[in-house]
Amino acid sequence: IIEETGAPHSGIGFEITETAAVTNFDAAETFVRKARERHCRVSLDDFGAGMSSFEYLRRFPIDAIKIDGSFVEHIAESRFDREIVSAISGIARSLGCSVVAEKVEQRVAMDILRDMG
Hints:
This protein is α/β, with parallel strands linked by helices. It has a single domain, classed as TIM Barrel. The protein contains seven helices and four strands; from the N terminus they run H-E-H-H-E-H-E-H-H-E-H. The chain has a four-stranded parallel β-sheet with strand order 1-2-3-4. The longest helix has 16 residues, at about 80-95.
């Protein structure tokens, strides 16, 4: 598709969900590496939803982490969720990855996330 459209590779991004990666880890790893070799962006979606998230960080050369919405939707009420989101965000930044939070549906959640950076 990339070659057919002539689109700049850096303008193309792919998302790998944790659940998809679990079903065939080796195929997902190969896909991510090939996409990155072509200078495409790759995001790890639903981060934190599965049990082996950190293995993906170690093995996949990703550009962004999308924090699973289950940790974001109650961030205003749940200290636990705030701490998890803060920790994931800190790890992502220390690895040079962008961070995207899913399910930001309330202004207070947006303000909390903005304060986290």
